[in-house]
Amino acid sequence: MSYIEELKELGKLKDAGILSEEEFQQKKEEILSKDSPSPRKEGILSRGLRKWYSFAEGQVIKQGEKVQKGYSDVRELKRLKNNGVLTKKEYETQLEELKNHDRTTKAYIEYNDATDELDKALRKNAKRRGVGSKVKFK
Fold first, then answer.
1. Sign of torsion, CA 32 38 39 40?
2. 68-100 burial code (b ≥16 CB/10 A, e <16)
3. What are the angstrom distances between the C-alpha of 27 and each of 37, 41, 129?
4. What pLDDT sits at residue 34?
5. Are 109 and 98 in contact (CB under 8 A)?
6. pTM of the prediction?
7. What's the CA gap between 45 and 65, in Å, rounded?
8. φ, ψ for residue 83 (rounded to 5)?
9. Which of 10, 28, 114, 122 has the maximal Cβ count within 10 Å?
10. Helix (H/G/I), strand (E/B), else coil: 39
11. Residue 132 carries which DSSP code?
């Protein structure tokens, strides 16, 4: 039975005095609720799209959290190396482990390595030109 037919039957029951106004309103709300198909409700396509969007949004959030974690891990390792807590070999070993853990972290590590190499090259060039330690690149 469609929701329209259900509403017609409900109206007849109210008119016949079988249902009170309160019972009628309660049943009407039940019929028009989310559980019943009605033109005022989402269609199957919009429900599917909403579910897909929620799923995709969740995936984006998870990926963003992974990226942030990878970034934080790499920065912390670098800080520990610079403070002498980790040797260069320990630092490189830990970076390799992070690279194998997540593709995004691997990309960030490679980017970080490239910027370090660029920084070294710029410092070397600055020293050659006589600018020395006055130049700060990062």
1. positive
2. eebeebbeebeeebeeeebeeeebeebbeebbe
3. 15, 17, 86
4. 55
5. yes
6. 0.47
7. 30
8. -90, 5
9. 10
10. coil
11. G
For residues 94-114, give the mean pLDDT: 82
Residue with the two structure tokens 């330690």: 133
Give the residue extent of every domain in the chain. 61-134
**For tokens 């600018």, what's the residue?**
131
Separation in Å, CA 57 to CA 62, 63, 105: 9, 10, 21
Token digits of residue 91? 């630092």
- Band (pLDDT 50/70/90 cuts) for residue 134 is low
pLDDT band of residue 30 (cuts 50, 70, 90) is confident
Residues contacting 69, CB < 8 A, separation 6+: 105
State the residue for tokens 């919009």: 46
The Cα 62–Cα 90 span in angstroms is: 29
Q: If you search the block for the tokens 């909403």, which residue do you land on? A: 50
46: three-class secondary structure by DSSP: helix
**pLDDT tens digits along 39-88:** 455 677 777 888 888 888 888 888 888 888 888 888 898 899 899 999 98
